Amino acid sequence: MLSQFSVKRPYTVLVAVVLVLVLGIISFTGMKTDLLPDIELPYIVVVTTYPGASPEQVEQAVTRPLEATLGTAGGLKNISSISNENSSIVILEFVQNTNMDSATIELSNSIDMVSARLDSSVSKPMLLRISPDMLPVAVTTVDMDGRSLEELSAFVTGTLLPAFERIEGVASVTAAGLLEKELQVSLDQEKIDDLNSRIRNDLEVKLGRTEAQLKSAQAELAAALEKLDEETAKQQEQLAGAGAELNSAIANLNALLAEESLLEAQQTAFEQEREMLLQFSEVQLLPFPLPLDIGELDPAVYTALIAWLEPLLPEELEGLSQTEMAQMLESGRRLPISWAADLPHHRTYRSVYGGSKVYTLPCRVAFYQTEVSGALNPIIG
pTM to 2 decimals? Predict the structure, then answer.
């Protein structure tokens, strides 16, 4: 078909071929030569330093936690690690066409999370993207006739390296194999031993003095504790004696208070008796002579006497017959209340109650709220 088209339209094919040749020539002349083209490799390296750690410690404390955290990154194809002395290297390989910028951000966030769980002496992990730009463009050697290695090193460090760094497009310049001056300090072991001996002797003297002071202080403390125990025992005895005296004083005080209460009760009783006597002194004389035995009274006289004494009689004696009143006096029962009546002819009667109290009233018969132990005995006076 193409051959037929070329035979039928030869001019069209000729124009197309010429056009292709012209575009090729233009492109070839405008193409720049780049020995290191910009190539984005799907690799990221994580480097972590752990000073003073063995490879086993680096693997346990750094490499495995990083692998467990970084292994969840999206688009990851393969992960490998190298645990060296003092450092750990984790190499991450991603699938082609992975956006390495996004992968770098994701790994950075994962590293921030795992860094808090690492040992304090472990440095922060560094992310490195593998690129041809990391390779040196040129490696050269420097040599100068008639100069020593020290002079050559000074020339490279002071003149050559700054000149290369000032060239446009140069990112960095590093030098290796230069002679660096070092200052070594050697110590005299004999002088060190002598100094240690003097220091040791001084420390022993001071420690001996301190030990003596400590023993003296311990002895004083023991004596003080013994004295304190003695004083404590004495104080406890004194406190016990004071407690006994206090208990005795409290008992005496309670006895005095009880006696005071008894005296107050007796005083109250005496005041009541005094009030009754004052009331009895106001009672008017009977208009008729009163025999010593109520049972011998004429019933009419007893009725008139009870009617006359009704304001003074208690409720318990109201309504008692002459016989009941006589039986009450003869049987020596307790009368519920005290009452009295003056008798005519100004005779003196003595009434004995309770076996110990004697009350003498002028021309008066008295009934008290006590047990009657004897009859009324007239005393002419």
Answer: 0.37
Check: CB of residue 74 under 8 Å from CB of residue 103.
yes
Phi and psi angles of residue 247, each rounded to the nearest 5 degrees, phi first: -65, -40
Beta strand 76-84 pairing with 87-94: antiparallel
pLDDT, tens digit (0-9, with 9 covering 90-100), for 305-315: 777 777 666 66
pLDDT for 270: 81
Contact 67, 80 (CB under 8 A): no
User: Reduced to 3 states, what is the DSSP secondary structure of residue 358?
Assistant: strand
Select from 310, 326, 337 the least CA-distant residue to 376.
326
CB distance 73 to 44 below 8 Å: no
Contacts of 107 (CB under 8 A, 6+ apart): 44, 46, 70, 73, 92, 127
Q: Within 13 Å and on the Cβ side, how many CA atoms surround 179?
A: 8
What b-and-e string marks burial along 228-265, b requiring 16 or more CB atoms within 10 Å of the CB?
eeeeeeeeeeeeeeeeeeeeeeeeeeeeeeeeeeeeee
The span from the CA of 67 to the CA of 89, in Å, is: 10
H-only helix segments in the chain: 2-8, 10-30, 55-58, 64-70, 100-115, 149-155, 161-165, 189-281, 299-309, 322-331
Give CA–CA dist 176/161, Å, rounded: 11
For 43-134, the fitting CATH number among 3.30.70.1430, 3.40.50.720, 3.40.50.2300, 2.70.150.10 is 3.30.70.1430
- pLDDT of 327 strictly over 70: yes
> Tokens for 78?
């393969």
CA–CA separation, 31 and 23 (whole Å): 12
Domain boundaries, the chain: 1-31, 43-134, 143-178, 283-379
How many residues are there in the chain?
381
